[in-house]
Design brief:
With 338 residues, the chain is an all-alpha fold. The protein contains 17 helices and no strands. The longest helix is centred in the N-terminal third of the chain and has 34 residues.
Length: 338
């Protein structure tokens, strides 16, 4: 057999086991798991376990998952559409040329342009590669996943009859994005440790292929973290002694720091984190506000994404600064409104 004959494979054989097929299988499995939890979760858990604590855990876990899932799916769809159908040049043309004014405009644009944490990093990288000042691109990176309409609507549903929580979340998150953008300008723009992207990740397929791959990626990541977050909230309410939680919750600064760190570790999608925060009833509204403000802008997956996109020297500086500003803004806005 000749070399040419050996190297020639049927098209079907070459495509078998491709990453796209694996992603589709994982997407389907995750979707089936979430739908199964929504429909039969509590019945299954109460059948397997009979203790009152387990029943309470199962009720809360399934409740958080069911409430958050519609907003999670909607956010993933809108984020994928933004990635696929809105060119980065649109943002470059819409922003003012003066960096000082571009920062608040980029922050405010997050209100009307939905995007999850994972999508905001490549979008901000594309803005930088097209000449947008890094301060404005970073302001958009922080605001888009924190104050978009899906996130604010999910917060209103998670905290019914408490519109002040929605307002507090929007104001605190908007303030964090603008402060970090302006700090970037005031401290010399960090040119020595920011790796400015030169090209956005290319896609060989059409826009609908980009939409499909972005949707699969975001749903797989967000769905998994939602399940982890719901389980953590339920476990916190059942396993941790009530006296310990009351002691921590009674100290405002300590409770804010703990829930902020919890948001960093859990890395829950911003479209669903309000439902987890609503379940942490032992803590004050200000502490839960910190959980919702910190989560969309600094968590373990975002730190990894930022390190890979902008360089590790950027990530090790930007993440702690973002966390500190988010905690301060949450305390200030919580003291003012909550």
């Amino acid at each position: 057999m000749t070399t040419a004959a050996r190297d020639t494979k049927p098209p079907d054989t070459q495509e078998a086991g491709s990453p796209g097929q694996g992603a589709s299988v994982a997407f389907t499995a995750t979707l089936v798991l979430l739908v199964g939890l929504a429909l039969f979760g509590r019945r299954l858990f109460t059948t397997w376990f009979t203790g009152d604590g387990i029943r309470t855990w199962a009720t809360m876990f399934v409740g958080v998952t069911v409430q958050a899932m519609p907003f999670l799916v909607l956010g993933v769809l809108l984020s994928a559409a933004l990635t696929a159908f809105v060119p980065a040049s649109f943002f470059a043309k819409a922003l003012p040329k003066r960096p000082l004014l571009a920062v608040p405009v980029a922050s405010a644009s997050g209100v009307v342009l939905p995007g999850c944490e994972c999508a905001s990093v490549p979008v901000s990288a594309a803005l930088m590669s097209r000449g947008v000042t890094p301060a404005a691109a970073l302001a958009f990176l922080l605001s888009a996943p924190a104050i978009n309409p899906v996130v604010l609507a999910s917060t209103a549903v998670a905290f019914p009859g408490q519109p002040k929580v929605v307002v507090a979340r929007a104001l605190a998150s908007l303030a964090v994005s603008m402060i970090l953008g302006w700090l970037w300008l005031l401290t010399g723009k960090g040119g020595s440790w920011l790796r400015t992207p030169t090209d956005r990740h290319a896609h060989d397929g059409g826009k609908f292929d980009v939409f499909r791959s972005a949707m699969l990626h975001d749903f797989l990541h967000a769905g998994g973290f939602l399940v982890i977050g719901a389980a953590a909230a339920a476990t916190l309410n059942v396993v941790v002694p009530r006296a310990w939680l009351d002691h921590v919750a009674g100290n405002l600064l300590l409770s804010v720091l703990i829930l902020g760190l919890l948001a960093v570790v859990l890395a829950i999608c911003s479209e669903a984190d309000a439902f987890v925060a609503a379940g942490l009833t032992q803590f004050s509204l200000t502490a839960r506000l910190a959980f919702m403000v910190v989560g969309p802008i600094v968590d373990v997956k975002l730190i990894a994404l930022q390190a890979g996109t902008f360089g590790p020297r950027f990530a090790v500086r930007f993440a702690p600064a973002t966390f500190a500003v988010a905690i301060g803004a949450s305390l200030l806005v919580g003291w003012w409104l909550l």
